[in-house]
Write a structure and sequence with these properties.
Blueprint lengths: L7 H14 L7 E3 L10 E11 L10 E12 L5 H15 L9 E15 L7 E13 L2
Parallel strand pairs: 1-2
Antiparallel strand pairs: 2-3, 3-5, 4-5
Amino acid sequence: MVTRYLGFWDLQQAVYTRLTTDPLTLGYSTYNYVPDNTSMPYISFGGFSGVDSATFSSRDVWVEDNIFMVHVWSDYLGDKEAAQMMDNIVRALTNAVLVVGGCDSHIFRHDYSEIIIDDTEPAVIVRHGIIRFRVVMSNT
């Protein structure tokens, strides 16, 4: 029986490394924890969740189905900046194999995206882009 592995930390490191080194996203501030008074635009990410994959797992191979979110924050008047940032993020994370320590990410896909308007503060309109990715990781 193979030893079970929860790959959140390795996946988080791989995502952070890609977002902070890829030419498409290099110019954006990227955070897992956003400091107070951070100026926009910026990227934040997190919200990792995972489950054993009943579809692919076997006695000798563990497979984990993971989801994580990347958020774009922009105070640009209109959707243009958030939409361009989101496109760059999707391309940066999906154009090349994402190497996750100890795992083989053999399925990595963009699952869902949307831009919502956050107008909870008076006189401030923020575009909040949400991108969800799905990553299947295994020990093979």
